Amino acid sequence: MNSVHLHLMIVHIPIILVPLGAILLAIALLRKSDQLLKLTSTLFVASALFATAAFLTGESSEEVVEELPGVSEAQLEAHEESADAALALSLALGVLGLAGLAASRLPVTARSYLQIGMLLASLLTSGALAYAAQEGGKIRHPEAFSAVVGGDKGHEAEDDDD
Fold it and tell me: Is residue 88 part of a domain?
C-alpha cells in the first residue's frame, strides 16, 4: 500500500459520514432524540478527524500522481483548492460536533441554535466534500466524466436483432 491507496481509502470516509450525519441529525431534530443528537455529533467529530487524515495524505499522493501520464497540474490544483475548503468546513463542523456533545449543559434556546447550525453546516460541508471528490475523480477517472461531456465513447451501440 502506498500513500495514494491510503489517501483514497481515507478520503471516502468523511464523504459518507457527513451526509449520513446530516440525515440522522434531521431525524434527531424531528424526533427530539438526545441519543441520536449525540451520535451525529460524534459522527461530525470523527469526520473532521478523517478529513484531516485525508489532507495529510494528500500531499504525498500528489507527488506520486503528478508523475503519471495524463495527469494535469490544473486538475491537481483544482482538487487541492476544493479539498482545502472542504477541510476547513469539516473542521468547523467537527468543532460544532464537540459543542453538540456538551450541549446538554447549554440553555434550551442555545442548544436549538447549535443544532440548527450543525444541520446547516453539515449540508454545506456535504456539498463541499462532494465537489472536492468530483474534482479528485477527474484526476484519474476521465471515464466517469466522458458520458457527461462527450457521450459514452467507450461502448458501441448494440444492434437489435428482432
Answer: yes
**What are the contacts of 97-100 at 24+ separation with CB within 8 A?**
97/40, 97/41, 97/42, 97/43, 97/44, 97/45, 97/48, 98/41, 98/45, 99/41, 100/37, 100/38, 100/40, 100/41, 100/44
**pTM, 2 dp:** 0.81
Q: Does residue 150 form part of some domain?
A: no
Please indicate, yes or no, if residue 12 is contained in any of the structural domains: yes
User: How many domains does the chain contain in total?
Assistant: 1
Domain range for 86:
3-64+73-140
Q: What is the pLDDT along the chain (162 residues), one digit of tens a residue?
A: 777 888 888 999 999 999 999 999 999 999 999 999 999 999 999 999 999 999 998 888 777 777 777 777 888 888 889 999 999 999 999 999 999 999 988 899 999 999 999 999 999 999 999 999 998 888 876 555 555 555 544 444 444 444
